[in-house]
Write a structure and sequence with these properties.
Elements: E1 14-18, H1 22-33, E2 37-42, H2 66-71, E3 76-79, H3 82-91, E4 94-97, H4 105-111, E5 116-121, H5 136-143, H6 165-184, E6 190-195, H7 196-204, H8 208-215, E7 229-233, E8 236-240, H9 245-254, H10 269-285, H11 289-298, E9 303-305, H12 316-321, E10 324-326, E11 333-335, E12 340-342, E13 383-387, H13 392-402, E14 406-411, H14 437-442, E15 447-450, H15 456-466, E16 471-474, H16 478-484, H17 488-494, E17 499-502, H18 519-526, H19 546-568, E18 572-575, H20 578-585, H21 587-596, E19 613-617, E20 630-634, H22 638-648, H23 662-667, H24 669-681, H25 685-695, E21 699-701, H26 712-716, E22 720-725, E23 729-734, E24 738-740, H27 759-765, H28 770-778
Parallel strand pairs: 1-2, 1-4, 2-3, 4-5, 5-6, 13-14, 13-16, 14-15, 16-17, 17-18
Antiparallel strand pairs: 6-24, 7-8, 8-9, 10-11, 12-18, 19-20, 20-21, 22-23
Helix pairs in contact: 1-6, 5-7, 6-7, 6-19, 13-19, 18-20, 19-20
Length: 788
């Protein structure tokens, strides 16, 4: 097939969707948005998502659940017998698989070696846990994500992140892995083995193993509510946050307490915001949401309304950007795709198929010519200018670095990457800026260049560097590059085929365009916060998912742009707003409200699928000597309920026939919780897990995140690799959440670069002499230590 620049990048790529559940459905939706032809293979009764509603809305016979209708946009449906499935696989380029299909991914890969087979499973296809029962909730527990960033008050159970976010982000990682493999070797098959547990580790925790190894202490020992966080104003909920010392100082001034400012002690911002929170919350209570936000924006303090499924479409920013559009078949509102491409195009959403609608047209399918013709992309030949900081941007470029790209991380001595500064290492320690576990974890395999582009010489060198780069990724607020005269048009003038990925918090236009954006603000603005926490209290910010979710979605957009360039020779602009990525993984809230008038609410550690589902206190103390050791149990099917009854020895309380159905267990959840809590309180976590897992019940220990590397499944898969750092010594680092059949397990990681480590190398490549480089260093345009 000959493609034109107007065709979506994946036009001609045929995908067979053999998955069930959100992860596979979202993976193939992202591929369909990119132009792939996705054929969904279903059993005669249809995919279970056709009958699903998180609010319990009744789905009439012949109708489909709204979430299915969103996830199945632009796809085709066949009811597959073995002969038809074999023909589809022989004719396809990609197969996406999850447990439940009669074929194994290994069998598909062996029988159809031309295929890229993407397997999505809870723990991966190999390792001692590969066949263990799990749900998204128990995976959050095993990952350390439930307590990973101090979520929840210390006098209550910790709370998971609501909304099945791990399922959605796993789908985004699966789509990115699929496209990366296709780009590298078009027409060559590979088995991609994605572990959802590993996705949870990367998305819900902040490199805690590296943190413990480098600093000999855990990220934190106690849970606390992030303050000010979500607070009650006169007319609703509003969220404020402080990610830096300066933002806390500005907050002090805003609420009329400049005496709280202590510039000599900027490290303990978390403790100080907690101590002052009652006064701040009282100040907020006397004002409207609009008044609080107007002041906070003027002071450049991160802030947001607390968005949910009911009010999201009416937010002025989302209205201005047309962030929601009607579903093309059923009319309810759904989010637009999580990124925008120019001049490359995404496919406009098409209607979801009715069950088996395309079965007849796919019988006797002959082998189609793939749209993926020509040479593949060698990531080892790809040069990426990484103008990002903190977590979201570096997590996107980190994947490229792990795949072999040359990634140049740009900083300046006056403004180093913010993650170098948040490890709590005092400035009195030698080379303190090189001892940040978070920076180290996000930037392995990269190079470092410092360049003060506030100076004319710095801007000139930046333009010369841009002309040598295939890809530029940046996550400044939009005004920064606009003021420098380095928007996409200016970059394209320097190198016409450059791909530029811009990752602003709220997009390149709209009323919130220049608002400060950190993970917690993105969570507040998208609905992710709304579903997290206990129902009788204000929501709790996840304080995690907003950044890495933005990174993996930006990566998907970037890979589509690379495919567009491979086929057309054109560069592209990718606008990957953090909030757009978050609106997509929180899509179910707006969809349920628009389709059924149902506002999804937070429910502590319960959820809409499994019952019982909760955290239960065990008989043990945790490693810090507290009664704070928990297990997660989630019974997702009637068969698992029977397994739980067997494991408990058929107690009388569990014998009621009403409990044999999911509906009955939801109805009597309080009573079931009371009994399970009593049983767990008398046992240790290992005993509970061993008994229930052997019976087939999804269960997980609520891990302290710095203990992730002790999990035998992660050890078996080699998820952590040891690297020696010249300043901070040896530590273990997380890798990628996938294993590839034709690639080595180990990534041969290089430690994160020292600040300015590659200045001479990179500037010499631009033609500068040693003397010229020395002058730049003497004048502070470049350097290898933060400016005093």
């Amino acid at each position: 097939m000959t493609l034109t620049p107007a065709d979506p990048p994946l036009t001609g790529c045929a995908v067979v969707d053999l998955s069930t559940g959100i992860p596979g459905a979202y993976c193939t939706k992202l591929l369909a948005d990119g132009g792939a032809q996705v054929v969904k293979v279903e059993p005669p009764e249809g995919d279970p998502l056709r009958r699903w509603s998180a609010s319990g809305a009744t789905i009439q016979p012949g109708d489909d659940g709204a979430l299915f209708s969103f996830l199945a946009c632009s796809k085709e449906s066949v009811v597959g017998d073995p002969e038809l499935v074999r023909g589809l696989l022989a004719s396809a380029d990609v197969a996406v698989w999850s447990p439940g299909s009669p074929l194994s991914p290994q069998e598909i890969h062996r029988t159809h070696p031309h295929l890229v087979v993407t397997s999505i499973t809870p723990f991966g296809l190999e390792g001692p846990w590969r066949d263990r029962a799990a749900t998204e909730f128990t995976l959050q527990a095993w990952s350390g994500g439930i307590v990973g960033l101090g979520r929840g008050a210390p006098d209550r159970a910790p709370v998971h992140v609501g909304g099945q976010v791990g399922d959605w982000v796993s789908g985004a990682y699966a789509a990115a892995a699929t496209m990366a493999v296709r780009l590298r070797a078009p027409g060559t098959g590979e088995l991609i083995d994605l572990s959802m547990l590993e996705v949870h580790v990367l998305s819900l925790t902040y490199h805690p193993v590296t943190f413990r190894d480098m600093l000999d202490r855990p990220w934190q020992q106690t849970r606390r509510l992030n303050m000010p966080g979500v607070a009650t104003a006169k007319d609703g909920l509003v969220a404020l946050g402080c990610a830096t010392a300066q933002q806390f100082f500005d907050l002090c001034a805003m609420v009329g307490h400049p005496e709280w400012i202590d510039e000599k002690n900027p490290v303990s911002i978390g403790e100080r915001t907690t101590a002052t929170a009652p006064v701040i919350q009282e100040w907020i209570a006397g004002r409207t949401v609009a008044e609080v936000r107007e002041l906070a924006t003027a002071f450049r303090i991160p802030n947001s309304a607390v968005v949910n499924g009911a009010n999201a479409p009416a937010m002025d920013h989302f209205e201005a950007r047309r962030s929601f559009l009607p579903n093309p078949r059923d009319g309810f509102l759904q989010p637009v795709p999580p990124f925008r491409l120019e001049p490359a195009r995404l496919r406009p959403p098409g209607p979801a198929p009715r069950l088996g609608e395309h079965t007849g047209s796919h019988r006797g399918t002959a082998r189609r010519a793939s749209g993926k013709t020509g040479a593949g992309l060698s990531f080892s030949g790809l040069r990426v200018l990484d103008m990002t900081a903190f977590w979201a941007g570096p997590s996107c470029t980190h994947v490229l670095a792990l795949l072999g790209a040359e990634v140049i991380h740009l900083e300046s001595t006056s403004r180093p990457d913010g993650t170098r500064l948040i490890a709590g290492v005092p400035p009195t320690v030698d080379q303190w800026w090189e001892r940040s576990p978070i920076f180290a974890g996000l930037n392995t395999n990269k190079k470092s260049l410092t360049l003060d582009f506030r100076t004319e010489r710095g801007r000139d060198l930046l333009r010369r560097l841009i002309a040598t780069c295939d890809v530029i990724v940046e996550n400044y607020t939009p005004r920064v590059l606009d003021q420098l005269g380095l928007d996409y048009e200016a970059v394209r003038a320097l190198r016409p085929d450059t791909i530029m990925v811009r990752m602003p918090g709220f997009g390149l236009d709209g009323p919130w365009r220049d608002n400060a954006a950190f993970a917690f603000v993105i969570e507040d603005a998208s609905g992710l916060t709304w579903l997290t926490g206990h129902p009788e209290s204000n929501p709790v910010e996840p304080y995690s998912i907003g950044d890495p979710n933005a990174g993996v979605h930006a990566l998907n957009g970037l890979l589509l742009a690379l495919e567009h360039r491979r086929q057309t020779g054109e560069g592209a602009l990718v606008e990957a707003a953090m909030v757009d990525a978050a609106l997509n993984v929180a899509a179910e809230q707006v969809i349920e409200y628009s389709a059924y008038g149902a506002l999804l609410e937070r429910a502590g550690n319960r959820g809409p699928r499994a019952a019982p589902q909760n955290l239960y206190l065990t008989a043990e103390q945790d490693e810090f000597g507290r009664r704070d050791s928990w297990v997660a149990i989630a019974v997702a099917t009637d068969e698992q309920w029977e397994a739980l009854r067997d494991a408990l020895g058929h107690p009388g309380w569990a014998s009621s026939p009403e409990l044999s159905t999911t509906e009955g267990r939801h109805k009597h959840h309080d009573a079931v919780d009371e009994q399970l809590a009593a049983w767990c309180r008398e046992r240790g976590a290992d005993e509970i897990v061993d008994r229930l897992w052997r019976a087939g019940v999804p269960v997980g220990k609520v891990m302290q995140p710095h203990r992730q590397a002790e999990l035998e499944q992660l050890r078996c898969r080699g998820f952590f690799e040891e690297i020696d750092h010249p300043v901070s010594g040896r530590a273990r680092y997380s890798t990628l959440p996938v294993r590839l059949s034709r690639s080595p397990v180990h990534r041969r990681l290089r430690h994160a670069p020292l600040l300015g480590r590659h200045n001479h190398e990179l500037l010499a490549e631009l033609g500068l002499t040693e003397r010229e480089i020395a002058v730049l260093e003497a004048d502070g345009v470049i350097g290898r230590a933060p400016a005093r």
